Amino acid sequence: MHGILDAKGVVTKLNEYDITPNTMFVSWSSWHFDLSLLREWLDAEGHHNVLPNNKRLCLLSKKFRGNLERTIGKDCFRGCHFPLILPFVFPLLFGEDHCLTGRNHNALIDAQQLALMAIMFVDLCKPPEERVV
């Protein structure tokens, strides 16, 4: 569907994809701002308990940041934090030749990159002998 959706249209789409208050969301942002705004707008439009609360949101960049700071320090990159913007990190982990590299700022591409980053993160949380990566 192309165009603008009203609140009822958004709820219909969320229901089509089985999004419930128990759904776990993953985001590359450092805040829960987008999910909070959407939830507040839907509430204001009379659609309550459609989206999960902020506790069901994994801010994946914060997880990567914490691990990087533990391993390489807080100011290893020219005296600053290592840049964790998706267009910078994705090619480092998946290579310059990956079909999604260099195609950011498109919602579908960014979501596909985020999905791969989440899969990699889960794999890296396993003991080394159990990892697929």
Automatic annotation (TrEMBL):
Q: Fetch the InterPro entries from UniProt.
A: RNaseH-like_sf
Task: Note the SUPFAM superfamilies from the entry.
Answer: Ribonuclease H-like
Question: Know the name of this protein?
Answer: Exonuclease domain-containing protein
Source organism per entry reads Penicillium subrubescens
Instruction: Give the highest taxon in the source lineage.
Output: Eukaryota
